[in-house]
Amino acid sequence: VPELPDVENYGRYFKRHALKKPITGVAVGDKRALDHISERSLQDRLIGARFVSTRRHGKQLFARTSNGGWLTMHFGMTGQLAYFKDREDEPQYDRVRFDFGKSGHLGYIDPRLFGRVGFVDDPNAFIRQHHLGPDALDAKLTFQRFKEALAGGGGLKAALMDQSRIAGIGNVFADEILFQVRLHPLTPVERLTPAQLKALFATMRKVLKTAIAAGAGAEGYWERLPRTYLLRQRHKGGVCPRGHGPLSIMKAAGRTTYFCGQCQKRV
Ligand SMILES: [Zn+2]
Questions:
Q1: What tens digit of pLDDT does each residue of 33-51 get?
Q2: What is the whole-number distance in angstroms between the Cα of residue 4 and the centre of ligand 1?
Q3: What span, in angstroms and rounded, lies between the C-alpha atoms of 37 and 218?
Q4: What does pTM read for this prediction?
Q5: How far does residue 176's CA lie from ligand 1's centre (Å)?
Q6: How far apart are CA 163 and CA 148, in angstroms?
Q7: What's the 79 CA to ligand 1 centre distance in angstroms?
Q8: Distance in Å, CA 260 to ligand 1 centroid
Q9: Distance CA 37, CA 41 (A)
Q10: Whole-angstrom Cα distance, residue 186 to residue 63?
């Protein structure tokens, strides 16, 4: 499931393959992938224009067009982007295809169709309407703002995954962050000491940046993560990278959660 690090790398991929090329066509393979816009309106907005820049907020990706206005992309459970030179190489499950004349095509691929592609005039309005909190890697997210954003009750995992508090973290990276900082997923936010909160903030940023640098979003990228990472062991039979034996599995925030009962004591 694409989370902040994956979407950050999708954004870089989009930049590499889709910026500055005249858009000559838009083909919608499945209308369910569209977010409150018709195929016709999307074509009207895009054909003849170019993508000029990208912006990411949490798990949401935006691409500004030369006509003004922004393409919006959310990747749901299984979404990703794929560039291909020839139409005959179009991947399966291509839900929205952007054509760039002789410069190839970019496909928005989503087998399970939980993601959405749309178009807005103002990404800030979009972020407000979707009640997204500050982006987890935003330079303007100071420790003070992080502390305020995270407050509001509940266990740590639920708080980290709540997109209205902090945007970008999902099931997998919540587990990784909490393992790295040695905090239990069900420990209430309010129980943390100021030092623990500071460590959580620093660890959140470090984990997300490490995953981006390791190539999050690409198949098998987790093999390039440090050996100390839970993600490499986040499967049945996985063990604590610190040598404590099998990981524990439970439900937290309604999601399957991996943690080490030795490293992460509940308080
Ligand atoms: Zn452990």
A1: 999 999 999 999 999 999 9
A2: 25
A3: 29
A4: 0.97
A5: 12
A6: 14
A7: 32
A8: 5
A9: 6
A10: 37
Q: Say how many Å lie between the CA of residue 198 and the centre of ligand 1.
A: 21
- Per-residue pLDDT tens digits for 103-162: 999 999 999 999 999 999 999 999 999 999 999 999 999 999 999 999 998 999 999 999
In the sheet with 25-28, reading across from the earlier edge strand, the strands are 25-28, 94-99, 105-109, 80-84
Q: Helices 194-213 and 143-150 sit at what angle, rounded to 10 degrees?
A: 100
Q: How far apart are CA 184 and CA 178, in angstroms?
A: 7
- Single-letter amino acid code for the residue at 178: L
Residues with C-beta atoms within 5 A of ion ligand 1:
240, 242, 244, 260, 262-263
The Å distance, Cα 173 to ligand 1 centre, comes to 17
Within 10 angstroms of residue 237's Cβ, the number of other Cβ atoms is 7
Ligand 1 centroid – CA 233 distance (Å): 12
Give the Cα separation of 243 and 131 in Å (integer).
40
Q: Furthest-apart CA pair in the chain: how many Å? A: 60
